[in-house]
Write the structure tokens for this entry.
Amino acid sequence: MGRNRLFLIIVAACFSATFSAIIDSKLNEYPKVQRRTWDQAIAMAKSTVAQLTLEEKCNMTAGIGGPCVGNVLPVSRVNFSGLCFQDSPSGVGDGVLHSTAFAAGIHIAATWDRDLFYKRGVGIGKEFQGKGVHFALGPMMNIDRNARHGRNWEGFGSDPYLSGENAFYYVQGVQDQGVVATAKHYICNEQETHRFYGASDPSNSKGYSANLDDKTIHEIYLWPFASSVAAGAGSVMCSYNQVNGTQACQNDKTLNGILKGELEFPGNVMSDWGATKTGLESALAGLDVNMPGGDGFLGFSLVQAVKDGTITEARINDMITRILAPYYLLGQDQGYPSLDLDRDVIGDNYKINRQVGAAGFVLLKNTNNALPLNVTTDNYYYIYGAAAGQSDEGFESGGSGEHGGALYQGGGSGFVEPTYGIDPLSVLVAKGRDSHLQIRYITNQNDFGAVTNSFNARGFSSAKCLVFISAFSSEGSDRSDLNALNKGDQLVQLVASHCTKTIVIVNSVSQLNIEAWIDLPNVVGVIWSGMPGAEYGKAIVDVLFGDYNPGGKLVFTLARNNSDYGTDISPTYDSNYTEGVFLDYRHFDKYNIVPRYHFGYGLSYTTFSFSQLDISKAGKGKLSASSQYRQRRMRSYTSLAASKAYEPAYEITFTLTNTGKVDGSEVPQLYLGFPAEAEEPPKVLRGFERVYLAPNESKQVSLVLTQKDISYWNVVNQKWTIASGNYTVWISTSADNADVKLQSSFHI
Ligand code: BGC
């Protein structure tokens, strides 16, 4: 055996060992607190309602001041402890102490790993439960329709199917810990601009109107909410905006009609904070609890309305039943922890957070295998950019980009002030000590002169240059552009004009325009580091040095021109969703626009091959590889009626092989082409699985198409309908047609 080959084998062996060492096997255990079915919970709620006075019931329909961001009054007479609602979708927020800032929604989505979706949910749920919080105000599943939307980082990207899978496993992970999940913001809350207009007092204002057709709302924006309901979510938060001219929290069509009617949602509708604009009309349209309360809408004012006969007591009873049912569903009446928002219950959540952080990084460019870095041969490093280190004002300001620093999450109510946050620079410096790396850094991004001068350092002529850039956004305002913060793009250009081995790390809330530098030949590596949570530094160094092989995939398209997206924030009070179902890759496909990077794209340090595609009808008991995917869908708190749509229709199997030299993962993506009758985009995502393989290892992958997956929303008969004709199945590694690995079809 030649010396080179022996060296390669040793490197590969070391790589595999470290790679698997950071996957904690204990994380495979799924402790659950699930105690009751919806039917049992509703029966218990009804029996409590029967013991309450009209005044007590009405009081519970509006929040009161208290320790949490939302509070429902206790009624000790019936042994009801009251309810605490607390942000956020990515950890316990609203400024509590001792809290883990988890990788944000946009980042977990980029892992494309259902197992991690669920485990992150479990980790988040444990902290809410341990602090005695009853409802977590998440997951957030508004679609990334507008690249500049300030809240994209809280959600799961631009695709409804991917968002739906994320929402599903989040809900089950959190609720398995006994905490009610709140699916938000229902519905079409895809921009911050004009979320309040017309009055300085938000509760007297209106929200912009999202105007869209029936097919679009069902196939794109409702999809993840439907998945949340199917997963058993106890609560849904209605949003600030109007939908087709009616406020979302008093919209009879979307609340009573679609959510409670069509989806058979048995839980409660809670208003976003200040999203209730009327009392009676909202209650009649389907709103069950008004948050944060104190505005005179709902609450005690309903007592008179019942006496006047303008609302029935039966509807009040329904509201309280819906508020209490999730509490009984998850056994919160039985020894739930007392409320202490600052209680230290972070446990070992850093492990799952680090794993999600690493798994969500997307390797976009890797010229001649510039990455991973090799501590033996690559000894010299320049590190540039404020986003490499800590913000000037510590973690509290981590929620407000202008202070620079590595971003763990974006800003607003979704931001969790972390107990700690580990920046990349600190970990690189520590690695420098362990591996004898010579490191120079400049984090003052305003001083381009110092950056220019830095390149003359003795001995550094073949140094690698790591440039950290970021893009921040927050609830309450949309981004003004899609550029990196604080001249980050110019910083990359400057570094690349001096350094032939420039590697860019993009710490961004959502889409960024990277055209200023992506094609520069000296930019030899690009890692999209997203919003990776408090373990950022550890996770990124694992990936840079190959201790973890990146396998994340983009959850939105990265366009060459901002106008290529075809959708944007509306500057008026109307946001017209005229693109219909042609959003993101569906739009790029329709108009043949070539993006910079396709939805679903991401590289690896290894290579894969695909073979043996087979499609079979999924008859009863025939499913060969049902996996956790099916089992979890069968939880007792899943609404059975709603979950019929999720029955398997077809099973698609194929073999995936790791043909490279190191452990790694690939995410085969199933894109489906519909018969013409369905009037669908050229292709839509309908399946994926992240598969981890050792070198030369093969696995049979099974993807299940459900009844709903092969249906379109039929606006005439108001049903999900299976089209007749030919369906094409593409197994691909991104939405780029050039990445299709296997193709077949079935006929219905
Ligand atoms: C946000 C919600 C949040 C609520 C409570 C609102 O401004 O839109 O997402 O849960 O505040 O903080």
The CA atoms of residues 69 and 86 lie 5 Å apart. DSSP finds 20 helices and 27 strands in the chain.
